[in-house]
UniProtKB/TrEMBL annotation, chains A, B, C, D:
It catalyses: (6R)-10-formyltetrahydrofolate + H2O = (6S)-5,6,7,8-tetrahydrofolate + formate + H(+). The gene is purU. This is Formyltetrahydrofolate deformylase. The lineage of its organism: Bacteria, Bacillati, Actinomycetota, Actinomycetes, Micrococcales. Pathway: Purine metabolism; IMP biosynthesis via de novo pathway; formate from 10-formyl-5,6,7,8-tetrahydrofolate: step 1/1. CDD domains: ACT_F4HF-DF, FMT_core_Formyl-FH4-Hydrolase_C. Catalyzes the hydrolysis of 10-formyltetrahydrofolate (formyl-FH4) to formate and tetrahydrofolate (FH4). Residues 22-100 form the ACT domain. It comes from Leifsonia kafniensis. It holds the Pfam family ACT. PANTHER family: FORMYLTETRAHYDROFOLATE DEFORMYLASE, FORMYLTETRAHYDROFOLATE DEFORMYLASE 2, MITOCHONDRIAL.
Length: 301, 301, 301, 301
């Protein structure tokens, strides 16, 4: 059975995301930004659906804004809005911004090792129309999930990762990814990615860690959790940086466990948390709800 | 021991709420509102700390906005901002708005019957500086909590409520309340308030209901929950309207229970949920985070 | 791609469930039951792994007990334990009991209409070895999920259900099910099953209802939840009885929602809760953790 | 206003705890324990209300059992049960056990520094009849909470703790506590207690730590949580051992926080979690639901 990913797409919000755009602004706070942005959008007859703005210190701190608006017709008008915003925000306020039509699906590569629970969660959500992304490819260092992935009509690439030198594997990853994806998701990929790779690939990387960070950093978190006797276990989705398990946290959740559960039980219970935490993190990322700042995230959820 | 409520006040956010104001706007959505409001605030050199805006339908739906900003000096400037906003919003956009300095504490009357858990939660939070309100008085149909209330330096008024005719009691309530309070909280007050009272008193009334509404409407919700065998019990804070247990819901929460718990156990478990749900609802109300619309609430939490 | 369900089975607890048995006892409480049961198990050299016992009233109420034990060799010994227990419990105490080797997988039929989220959750959990059941068949009144089901190597039977008279469809259901299954799961099956069917099929039926019962009984619970403006939405797994949405509740959970979410959003958020609540309910059922009593459940979770 | 703690006691379960006893058994697992214990209780006409038993490995692991039963008349009979159990469990099975009438309230000393939220939670719960303990005294290194404590009719002792040498203060603590208490609760007591004190005082000590251990060990956990950008903050109740923040965990919980919350906000949000986690841990301890084993706890909740 092969079902291509396009067949079941159901628009996920009303009014249709076909006509919506997001505007993300981030930079040094200065008076007048809201008025200036509002004026640009108003001039182009954009209807603001929602707007969230946050300043971490109104006296010279950082400014974060997410605006969702509709525009008719989107395509032509969006370029004009962008030109206008560039003038106002970059010149007058020295602020960065990104503008994107929500109908332009982000292209995602999923990395996975042997565990399939996070991978399948994403494949099914995407197929059901709940996760509006294009899954461009799945890359793995093990062949175990190849059949499952291909049954969804998605390319699967096996890139073995033997030995401590990852440079050959990462070179192959870069050949496959460059120009093809907007986001990489490590869906229980049990390999460390190098700083060089992160810089060269040039797109955000989201990882799901199987503990409530910063507790139980590194390998074997469920065994460590059992050893310490914690009463909750968790999972953490974060952006990947050169510092292992130290990147900006996007989302976390926990589930209650008891003394009677073995390490294998904790893994199973944790797998459910990992699935939902990773899915929420990706959902927020593709809806442009997350702004990175230092080693933190601002999430307009 | 009598501790007056002012003694321990600790400002609850940074920068100090002394200098912050909230602006709430609600009405029919029209293009250009954000730009117009932004322009007014910019003109008065207000620094926007946070802004949340939501439209339930960008094609002619309703518009909701909450803005927090700082202004220097607050007192003088706020009147000028208000005059300007009145011109722009009421004349040009036909929108309602309210503007308030966060340092102007809301005056609250708490109604209670015999159960003291919600009352004490509020008294202690207020004394600890976590709930920036002035508790003007506590009114009860029973004398049970008088000593506790007065030990906090707060007036306690006993207004018995015998028989089906509540008009004498409600007349006494109005004499005590009129002009003196900005909010009434029914903290497990086991009497029905009449539509006449709601209209005449003229300030919002928040009630805590001891179930996850709309399940278990009316009296004895914990007994009903036990009878039905539910696995979660909850509490609901809502604005009071003439329709009992049908007013706009502000906040809800639940806690897990088991087959082994008696009705008395459910009451105790539920009491903890009632305390925290009511405290959150009041916190959001006094921070002007809630906008009522029809029988719903928009909560910018 | 067709993967038979046996291929990936991983034993789910330690020590291996191959060697474990469960004993469920339910009836009128009388002194001495624990001692008598303990004596029987001790006589057969059973090692008790866990034992939970609950009495809803020690003065003549009902007695509920779940015991998990290991036995070597299981197969031969279990018959002797059963004979002994029958003598002690049925003759001396007039108690019902069931005894089962945990390695004897329960045979399950899944009923589904068009929504596939609950169905797929169960298929994947079973395949991953997390849900030790045999999925004997999937029955649907719509062809939509046929390909998915068959890709797991599981028979799919289409039994259309046109018109108000369900007797022909139910007769077909009985032909397929009788003698073949130990449990029926309604995984978002949007048809009412008759009292006659429930009686004749003779095995437990678990349904997932898309609301926090008893709130929003009947059709369209998410639309009703939106209309009422609740801040949490939920799902309820329950045993099916003749009274629609009134059967004994097994498990419930909720998720927080906001004013900004549409009915379609609530459906998507609720689908995640439905999946996890149904999976937990089935897990507890197959591990013999649930005892029905009147319209309630005792769950030793 | 001074209300003695006895005035409002309301029995917290049905049937009345006046007539209930708990039996805790812990030791090396051996076949036949359940039968032997059941036989003793049966012989004395005890009615078992609930029984939970767990073995961490049926092949030679550890055995944990909690039994609640009623006995008439309790006082006389309990001594005979104890003698019988001592014979059977200590001689035949080499197992430790403790037997206690639930009506015998545990005597508790609360240690506190300046923060009053955990202290007041316990004082009010005890007064309301929700926490069946006797609060024998409150000991503090600061005078701040003296008036509050004494208004509940409970002795308050100020024992300053200046300088690095705690030996004088701990000697004073021992004079106050020895023979007078069954449990010590550190309700945000910001001093380290020495190994010598723990050994000499000879009763369990429960601490509430203001983080989700093992994350953010040591001082300033909320500042560390803000720095790391976590999305949940938590609290942990644990038994105190010589290793700071490393004792057996009893209970943990978390609450969701956002990017917009300051360290002061996190402290306030965390205080609510600390209150409820500490209250639950004490409740379980006084109901004999917790068995310590190595650095873990078995909690029959």
């Amino acid at each position: 059975m092969t079902i291509t990913q396009e067949t079941r797409y159901v628009p996920s919000t009303t009014p249709s995301t076909e006509e919506q755009a997001t505007l993300i602004i981030h930079g040094k706070d200065r008076p007048g930004i809201v008025a200036a942005v509002g004026a640009v959008l108003s001039r182009h007859n954009a209807n603001i659906v929602s707007l969230d703005q946050y300043s971490d210190n109104p006296e010279g701190g950082e400014f974060f804004q997410r605006t969702v608006f509709t525009l008719e017709p989107m395509k032509v008008a969006l370029e004009k809005v962008e030109a206008d915003l560039a003038q106002v925000l970059r010149s007058d306020f020295e602020l960065d911004f990104t503008l994107r039509a929500l109908s332009a699906l982000k292209r995602v590569a999923i990395f996975v090792s042997k565990s399939d629970h996070c991978l399948l969660e994403l494949l099914w959500r995407q197929r059901r129309g709940e996760l509006p992304i294009t899954i461009s490819m799945v890359i793995s260092n093990h062949p175990d999930t190849a059949d499952d992935v291909r049954s969804f009509g998605i390319p699967f690439f096996l890139v073995p990762s033997a030995g401590p030198d990852k440079s050959a594997a990462e070179a192959e990853h870069l050949r496959l990814l460059t120009g093809n994806v907007d986001l990489i998701v490590l869906a229980r990929y049990m390999q460390i990615v190098s700083g060089d790779f992160i810089r060269e690939v040039g797109v955000p990387i989201i990882n799901i860690h199987h503990s409530f960070l910063p507790a139980f950093i590194g390998a074997g978190p469920y065994a460590k959790a059992k050893e310490r006797g914690v009463k909750l276990i968790g999972a953490t989705a974060h952006y990947v940086t050169e510092d292992l398990d130290e990147g900006p946290i996007i989302e976390q959740d926990v589930v209650r466990v008891t003394h009677g559960e073995t390490v294998a039980d904790l893994q199973r219970r944790g797998a459910d948390v990992e699935r939902s935490v990773l899915a929420r993190a990706i959902q927020w990322h593709i809806e442009d709800r997350i702004i990175r700042t230092g080693n933190h995230t601002v999430v307009f959820s």
